């Protein structure tokens, strides 16, 4: 039997109950979509008592499928005003799986100004603990304190001061396996603010004394398919730059072809991109005692994480990713990896989305508030968010709010959420994903780079985006997409996993339907929340301005966007 | 919009050009070539003439005369065995799409191990084969200028393509005289196949100004000359124009690629063994109506080529309807049957819709379409 925790902040009760039958074959993004459409009124105030904050594991959590212990966080987004699923690595989902817990529901809002942590202890008991002493405490200090108190066999899922202040760019930070650094972020869409609005500082999850045993309907069927799939990943990672270097390796590809964003999505090339590229990164790691190939969750074969040290060999940040580097780097005309690492650390610590924060900085540069390429000025602005100055508080409302305040004409957002580190004119399928994903501008919803004929051309881009968006929906329901990528030749076997664990036919339609149903449910939620087809468009400047790197504009016909989810 | 344009295959064109085959084979340095054709080409005497022409140039020939329509993988693999055993150093294909597709498949297997089905899709790293000369004997397929080999995978129960430079002819010899004997029905079917290539090239997402120009010229020419050639096969001027048109349409779709009409055509062909040209023509008018939603300028161009006037202020829906009706009336005028006349029930015809939307060729369609809408298009075309 699997369990769910239902916690109500209004009366500080938490109940451990059997998981609903209907949720067994759902996990991650698919579970969040189905839960929210049934339990949260789409027009509710995302920071009010009607919104629920959901933490859940995947369909295959607790199995031997590599990276299946990924956590999804869901709720109505205060940033987009629509449905939000933000998934994250780290240790928490593994421990929840060991606890036999698929789903944690946080309802209501604390009636007092008090702050709370929700503990799941080694006996499997769940209880609230008052945490007023942690008010204003940021993620690194919090995680160290909790790890100091409860030992290393725990995971934290916490917010920093940004979440407490209800910043719409606030993340929820999850501690990494082994190191305990709170560097894995459920970053997008401001779910940290939803957590803050409820008065919840953190989840603290202990390793159970007794590990929960999953009940397989046909364990052999599961194991056989699982082994084949894991073998595919093991083989695939050998030549995977994400494994051998890290996600920063993406810069080597995007920097050369105009996909890497430069100077607030100007569409230019950035001649110095290699200064923030793979070689510089690897050199800095080896000369300063940093490390790559770190798994963020137990059993991961991709191991894309890293530990990045400063010039003095002291730990600075981890989970230092392409998006952060591209957007704080070339997109702000900055070519200093150490400065970007300090920004990453600051964002993780106060708990904000690096994509949203970096786009906000770029908009500040675009409007002349600070000069292009000035990494010190950028860090100073980020510190304003930490300090909670007036402008810092405005920055916490996201890139669009700051852009509007400064009179910026080029604000790179879709559904009020900042665009990730890929110029949509030069990977048009990704642009289609940005425009049409119910999540808002989100590369993880379907990054089509290299999958259609010509990244700057129109042909087959909507087709690629549609296929990937569906696939990412079921990938985000079962595992980490970096491992999923290597499983593609064995995708039909996912049906055997489903049948082996839950019974029934090994029919791939069970998987594919999960993807389609999830997207349609999310769109229905967004429509009920008030979004229209006009929200499925990129900012005007991508249609008007040619990318100087390639001459391409975003020339996808509106009708093509309108019908992308006609199934 | 920025596009690329590829011209792959040099051509020798003109009445009697096939008489230079031997000279050209020798110029390419070949000493022993495989001549690929089907029994029909043998029976009308074209194959024998070309073989003799090659031998007179001092080049040995080996024949593979058993090409069948929709060339199956096994047949191609057998032919490749013969080619390797005989140590041929060139291939000459004489015939329609099947002969040329077979030759392409054989060439892929010259230096890449079988099975041919393992090379479906875009192949960038195949080992090169031998020089090839293609001599089309119909005005339809355009295969002489394309880099795709369409192969029927016997065990998989489907047709798919190998796309590779190894599928490209070294030279295409376009000799309209070879089509003078083509019977009216086959003239019409192959001509409409070329029309489908041109029309879909214009409306696909990969179109470019050069492919547009070639496709427009092909449509104009087919519209004018196909009825004449169907009426009087011996009209050389018509045959020459149609040969040019099919080659131009082939060049256009090599660049711009085809989409929904061919997906429907392939699904109908695979389910009911309808000839390719007829199957692609069945819903072509509805495909244009659908495309008008996003490609109305292109549908205007098509109508202009069909000498159909579209009012300046017409809406996209109106443009679509006018385009549909103009195409349908032309297709009917050359005697191409509709789905009902082909003997299908409405239910049978509509049943292919889910197969159509699963076809990877849908990647190239102007915009996404559901199986339900495809079924509606088939229903609209059924008895039209």
UniProtKB/TrEMBL annotation, chain A:
<comment type="similarity">
    <text>Belongs to the AOR/FOR family.</text>
</comment>
<dbReference type="GO" id="GO:0009055">
    <property type="term" value="F:electron transfer activity"/>
</dbReference>
<dbReference type="InterPro" id="IPR036503">
    <property type="entry name" value="Ald_Fedxn_OxRdtase_N_sf"/>
</dbReference>
<keyword id="KW-0411">Iron-sulfur</keyword>
<dbReference type="InterPro" id="IPR013983">
    <property type="entry name" value="Ald_Fedxn_OxRdtase_N"/>
</dbReference>
<dbReference type="Pfam" id="PF01314">
    <property type="entry name" value="AFOR_C"/>
</dbReference>
<keyword id="KW-0004">4Fe-4S</keyword>
<dbReference type="InterPro" id="IPR051919">
    <property type="entry name" value="W-dependent_AOR"/>
</dbReference>
<dbReference type="InterPro" id="IPR013984">
    <property type="entry name" value="Ald_Fedxn_OxRdtase_dom2"/>
</dbReference>
<keyword id="KW-0560">Oxidoreductase</keyword>
<feature type="domain" description="Aldehyde ferredoxin oxidoreductase N-terminal">
    <location>
        <begin position="3"/>
        <end position="210"/>
    </location>
</feature>
<dbReference type="GO" id="GO:0046872">
    <property type="term" value="F:metal ion binding"/>
</dbReference>
<dbReference type="Pfam" id="PF02730">
    <property type="entry name" value="AFOR_N"/>
</dbReference>
<dbReference type="InterPro" id="IPR036021">
    <property type="entry name" value="Tungsten_al_ferr_oxy-like_C"/>
</dbReference>
<dbReference type="GO" id="GO:0016625">
    <property type="term" value="F:oxidoreductase activity, acting on the aldehyde or oxo group of donors, iron-sulfur protein as acceptor"/>
</dbReference>
<keyword id="KW-0479">Metal-binding</keyword>
<protein>
    <submittedName>
        <fullName>Aldehyde:ferredoxin oxidoreductase</fullName>
    </submittedName>
</protein>
<dbReference type="InterPro" id="IPR013985">
    <property type="entry name" value="Ald_Fedxn_OxRdtase_dom3"/>
</dbReference>
<dbReference type="InterPro" id="IPR001203">
    <property type="entry name" value="OxRdtase_Ald_Fedxn_C"/>
</dbReference>
<keyword id="KW-0408">Iron</keyword>
<dbReference type="GO" id="GO:0051539">
    <property type="term" value="F:4 iron, 4 sulfur cluster binding"/>
</dbReference>
Automatic annotation (TrEMBL), chain B:
<dbReference type="InterPro" id="IPR039697">
    <property type="entry name" value="Alcohol_dehydrogenase_Fe"/>
</dbReference>
<dbReference type="GO" id="GO:0004022">
    <property type="term" value="F:alcohol dehydrogenase (NAD+) activity"/>
</dbReference>
<feature type="domain" description="Fe-containing alcohol dehydrogenase-like C-terminal">
    <location>
        <begin position="187"/>
        <end position="382"/>
    </location>
</feature>
<dbReference type="Pfam" id="PF00465">
    <property type="entry name" value="Fe-ADH"/>
</dbReference>
<dbReference type="InterPro" id="IPR018211">
    <property type="entry name" value="ADH_Fe_CS"/>
</dbReference>
<feature type="domain" description="Alcohol dehydrogenase iron-type/glycerol dehydrogenase GldA">
    <location>
        <begin position="12"/>
        <end position="176"/>
    </location>
</feature>
<dbReference type="GO" id="GO:0046872">
    <property type="term" value="F:metal ion binding"/>
</dbReference>
<keyword id="KW-0560">Oxidoreductase</keyword>
<dbReference type="InterPro" id="IPR056798">
    <property type="entry name" value="ADH_Fe_C"/>
</dbReference>
<dbReference type="InterPro" id="IPR001670">
    <property type="entry name" value="ADH_Fe/GldA"/>
</dbReference>
<dbReference type="Pfam" id="PF25137">
    <property type="entry name" value="ADH_Fe_C"/>
</dbReference>
<protein>
    <submittedName>
        <fullName>Alcohol dehydrogenase</fullName>
    </submittedName>
</protein>
């Amino acid at each position: 039997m699997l369990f769910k925790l239902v916690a109500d902040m209004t009366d500080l009760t938490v109940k451990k109950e059997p998981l609903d039958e209907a949720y067994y074959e759902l996990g991650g993004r698919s579970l969040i979509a189905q839960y929210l459409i049934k339990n949260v009124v789409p027009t509710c105030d995302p920071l009010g008592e009607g919104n629920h904050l959901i933490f859940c594991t995947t369909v295959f959590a607790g199995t031997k499928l590599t990276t299946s212990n990924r956590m999804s966080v869901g709720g109505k987004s205060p940033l987009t005003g629509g449905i939000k699923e933000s998934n994250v690595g780290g240790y928490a989902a593994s421990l929840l799986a060991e606890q036999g817990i698929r789903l944690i529901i946080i309802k209501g809002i604390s009636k007092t100004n008090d702050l709370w942590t929700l503990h799941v202890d080694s006996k499997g008991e769940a209880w609230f603990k008052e945490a007023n002493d942690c008010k204003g405490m940021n993620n690194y200090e919090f995680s160290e304190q909790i790890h100091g108190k409860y030992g290393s066999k725990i995971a934290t899922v916490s917010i920093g001061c940004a979440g407490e202040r209800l910043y719409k760019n606030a993340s929820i930070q999850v501690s990494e396996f082994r190191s305990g650094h709170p560097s894995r972020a459920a970053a997008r869409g401001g779910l940290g603010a939803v957590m803050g609005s409820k008065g919840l500082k953190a989840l603290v999850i202990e390793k159970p004394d007794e590990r929960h045993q999953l009940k397989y309907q046909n364990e052999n069927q599961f194991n056989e398919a699982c082994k084949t799939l894991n073998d595919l990943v093991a083989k695939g990672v050998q030549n995977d730059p994400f494994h051998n270097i890290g996600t920063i390796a993406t810069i080597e590809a995007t920097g050369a072809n105009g996909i890497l964003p430069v100077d607030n999505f100007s569409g230019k090339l950035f001649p110095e991109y290699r200064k923030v590229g793979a070689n510089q990164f690897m050199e800095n790691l080896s000369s300063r005692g940093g490390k790559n190939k770190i798994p963020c969750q137990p059993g991961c074969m991709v191991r894309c994480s890293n530990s990045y040290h400063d010039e003095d060999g002291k730990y600075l940040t981890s989970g230092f990713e392409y998006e952060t580097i591209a957007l704080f780097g070339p997109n702000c005309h900055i070519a200093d990896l150490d400065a970007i690492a300090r920004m990453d650390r600051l964002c993780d610590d106060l708990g904000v989305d690096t994509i949203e924060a970096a786009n906000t900085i770029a908009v500040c540069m675009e409007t002349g508030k600070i000069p292009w390429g000035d990494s010190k000025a950028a860090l100073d602005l980020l510190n304003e968010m930490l300090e909670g100055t007036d402008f810092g508080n405005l920055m916490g409302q996201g890139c669009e709010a700051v852009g509007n305040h400064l009179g910026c004409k080029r604000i790179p957002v879709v559904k009020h959420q900042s665009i990730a580190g890929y110029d949509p004119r030069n990977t048009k399928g990704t642009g289609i994903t940005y425009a049409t994903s119910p999540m808002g501008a989100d590369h993880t919803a379907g990054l089509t780079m290299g999958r259609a004929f010509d990244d700057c051309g129109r042909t087959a881009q909507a087709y690629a985006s549609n296929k990937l968006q569906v696939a990412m929906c079921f990938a985000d329901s079962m595992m980490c997409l970096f491992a999923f990528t290597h499983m593609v030749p064995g995708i039909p076997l996912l049906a055997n996993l489903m049948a082996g664990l839950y019974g029934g036919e090994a029919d791939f339609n069970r998987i594919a339907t999960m993807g389609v149903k999830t997207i349609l449910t999310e769109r229905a939620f967004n429509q009920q929340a008030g979004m229209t087809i006009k929200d499925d468009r990129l900012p005007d400047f991508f249609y008007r301005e040619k990318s100087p790197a390639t001459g391409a504009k975003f020339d996808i016909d509106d009708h093509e966007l309108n019908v992308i989810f006609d199934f | 919009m920025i596009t690329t344009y590829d011209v792959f295959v040099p051509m020798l064109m003109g009445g009697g050009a096939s008489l230079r085959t031997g000279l050209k084979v020798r110029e390419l340095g070949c000493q022993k070539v495989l001549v690929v054709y089907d029994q029909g080409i043998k029976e009308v005497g074209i194959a024998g003439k070309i073989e003799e022409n090659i031998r007179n140039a001092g080049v040995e020939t080996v024949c593979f005369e058993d090409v069948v329509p929709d060339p199956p993988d096994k047949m191609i693999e057998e032919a490749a065995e013969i080619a390797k055993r005989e140590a041929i150093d060139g291939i000459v294909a004489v015939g329609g799409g099947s002969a040329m597709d077979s030759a392409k498949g054989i060439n892929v297997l010259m230096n890449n191990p079988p099975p041919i089905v393992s090379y479906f899709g875009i192949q960038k790293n195949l080992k090169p084969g031998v020089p090839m000369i293609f001599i089309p004997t119909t005005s339809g397929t355009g295969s002489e200028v394309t880099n795709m080999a369409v192969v029927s995978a016997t065990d998989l129960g489907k047709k798919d393509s190998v796309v590779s430079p190894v599928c490209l002819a070294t030279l295409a010899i376009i000799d309209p005289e070879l089509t003078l004997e083509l019977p009216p029905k086959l003239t019409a079917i192959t001509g409409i196949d070329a029309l489908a290539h041109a029309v879909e090239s214009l409306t696909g997402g990969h179109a470019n100004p050069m492919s547009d120009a070639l496709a427009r010229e092909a449509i104009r020419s087919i519209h004018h000359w196909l009825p004449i050639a169907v009426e009087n096969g011996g009209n050389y001027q018509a045959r020459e124009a149609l040969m040019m048109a099919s080659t131009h349409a082939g060049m256009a779709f090599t660049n711009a690629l085809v989409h929904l009409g061919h997906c429907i055509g392939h699904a109908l062909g695979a389910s009911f063994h309808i000839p390719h040209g007829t199957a692609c023509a069945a819903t072509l008018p509805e495909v244009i109506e659908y495309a008008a939603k996003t490609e109305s300028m292109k549908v205007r161009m098509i109508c202009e080529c069909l000498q159909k006037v579209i009012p300046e202020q017409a809406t996209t829906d109106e443009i679509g309807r006018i385009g549909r009706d103009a195409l349908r009336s032309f297709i009917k005028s050359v005697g191409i049957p509709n789905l009902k006349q082909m003997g299908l029930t409405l239910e049978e015809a509509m049943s292919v819709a889910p197969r159509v939307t699963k076809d990877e060729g849908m990647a190239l369609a102007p915009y996404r379409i559901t199986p339900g809408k495809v079924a509606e298009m088939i229903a609209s075309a059924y008895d039209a």
